[in-house]
Design goal:
alpha/beta, globular, Rossmann fold, 2 domains, single chain
Length: 400
């Protein structure tokens, strides 16, 4: 394959006092599929932005080296699907031909703001696959298993050049090239090494408490049009279901962010009628937690959340002084949001593994275990049923 679709040579990149890349090199031929692996904060998403030409000195970035060839146009699916959609109607975003590739042709007549996060990803994918160069930043995390299977099938059959940034081993078998990003560089590795890297889980990733120690009985009750659910002290409950079934809407309603009346919540038999009451009890990490990080600096955001030194160490939040929240990776924002929510009685997590590497998933397990061992509760929505079956005491499926 002689025609090059991408050439990066001796790239060094930093923002303020934080070095992201140091002498990074990468070449891709036309039609090649590349998989980017690496810990949270290693620069996978940043590399995709660099390829798109989105990092400019005016934004505080310093880029050195040669970008000898960049794609003239590209399809892009980011970690924030709401930001990838610019029109009011789905039919204005993507053609029926490409929507059909992802089983999303039934969305053609819908308004974009009505879509779930997973449905927005499907629309963004349909739009991206009409291009010759496709960049996917953890595109499968918000997708149900059947939609992830379609994504893999379409990547495999596409003649476009594709770069995928991932923490999942699902995409190893469809990649022509695999790069492990760490310490500012991109090292090409074998599929065997990639599998070893991604499937090695930290010690102790299991539930250590089944919610039976506390004798208080059911203390949290949730009643909505989707389900009726009662939780005991010390219990972790998983919520699963297809894209568009209402998992995120349910959690947003329980937390009071999408109309308090949409879900009736009782705590120790008493109704929680207002947002203030719920916020006092609930720590909520929604999809796209970056939208809820309002402080400019990461250090100030830790202070606002009340994250102390012990929690900073536990969640690896000891960022260099002066780092802004906008400069954090998706995984770093996720860890920050989880740490900020972990001190409440009720921990509510929507797709909590988004952006997390294996070590950070270990931190997530420990946070849920600690919460439940202390008599708190956890309510977790995810498309990763293996995660829910391992992390939770029980799992409830919401029908579409």
């Amino acid at each position: 394959m002689n025609n090059k679709a991408l050439v990066l040579k001796n790239i060094s990149l930093s923002v303020k006092n934080r070095v992201i890349f140091s002498d990074l090199n990468m070449e891709l031929g036309e039609g090649e599929r590349a998989l980017l692996l690496g810990p949270s904060g290693s620069g996978k998403s940043t590399l995709l932005k660099l390829v798109m030409g989105l990092l400019e000195p005016s934004d505080g970035w310093t880029v050195k080296g040669e970008r000898l060839k960049l794609p003239p146009s590209f399809g892009w699916v980011s970690q924030n699907p709401s930001r990838d959609i610019f029109n009011n109607w789905v039919k204005e975003e993507a053609s029926i031909e490409y929507l059909r590739l992802f089983g999303a042709d039934g969305l053609e007549g819908r308004k974009c703001f009505e879509l779930s996060e997973g449905e927005k990803v499907l629309v963004s994918l349909a739009k991206a696959f009409s291009r010759r160069f496709i960049l996917l930043d953890e595109a499968g995390v918000s997708l149900a298993a059947n939609n992830r299977a379609l994504l893999k099938k379409n990547i495999r059959s596409s003649s476009a050049t594709v770069i995928m940034a991932e923490h999942s081993a699902e995409y190893i078998d469809i990649a022509d090239r695999i790069f492990l990003m760490n310490n500012g560089r991109a090292e090409e590795i074998s599929p065997a090494r990639a599998k070893e890297y991604l499937t090695h889980m930290p010690e102790g990733l299991r539930r250590v408490h089944g919610g039976e120690t506390f004798g208080e009985g059911d203390i949290l009750e949730i009643i909505s049009d989707k389900l009726s659910l009662k939780l005991r002290r010390g219990e972790a409950v998983g919520i699963s279901g297809d894209n568009g079934c209402g998992k995120s809407s349910l959690l947003n309603s329980v937390a009071g962010l999408e109309g308090v009346s949409a879900a009736r919540v009782l705590w120790k038999g008493k109704a929680l009628s207002g947002l203030k009451q719920r916020r006092g009890l609930m720590g909520f990490v929604p999809q796209e937690p970056g939208r809820y990080l309002f402080e400019t600096s990461a250090e100030k955001q830790c202070e606002t959340f009340g994250i102390g030194d012990a929690a900073k160490t536990a969640f690896d939040l000891n960022f260099p002084r002066g780092v802004e929240t906008s400069q954090l990776s998706g995984g770093e924002k996720q860890r920050l949001a989880i740490a900020g929510a972990a001190d409440k009685d009720i921990l509510i997590l929507d797709e909590p593994t988004f952006g997390l590497d294996r070590a950070s998933i270990g931190d997530l397990f420990r946070a849920v275990n600690s919460k439940c061992l202390a008599g708190g509760l956890a309510l977790i929505a995810s498309h990763d049923t293996m995660l829910l079956n391992t992390l939770c005491d029980r799992r409830i499926e919401i029908e579409t």
